[in-house]
Prior knowledge:
Elements: E1 28-33, H1 37-46, E2 59-60, E3 63-66, E4 69-71, E5 74-75, E6 81-87
Parallel strand pairs: 1-6
Antiparallel strand pairs: 2-3, 3-4, 4-6, 5-6
Amino acid sequence: xxxxxxxxxxxxxxxxxxxxxxxxxxxxxxxxxxxxxxxxxxxxxxxxxxxxxxxxxxxxxxxxxxxxxxxxxxxxxxxxxxxxxxxx
Length: 88
């Protein structure tokens, strides 16, 4: 997926700064459309990323399968929820 550290947009172009409210939103912050969620999840796990587990239908081994496709969720170092998703 090639995820990189976030950068602040603007003239300064420096790294994003930590904020006390970072990671408090319980909704997904970013999605990546991928061709193969299973492959992406395997790569993330190989790098030590822990997937989020939610109580929802179709969730197995960290991946939710549903008629519209597949999705998985993980948190970044600030607690923001990120998700690779695959269409049906």
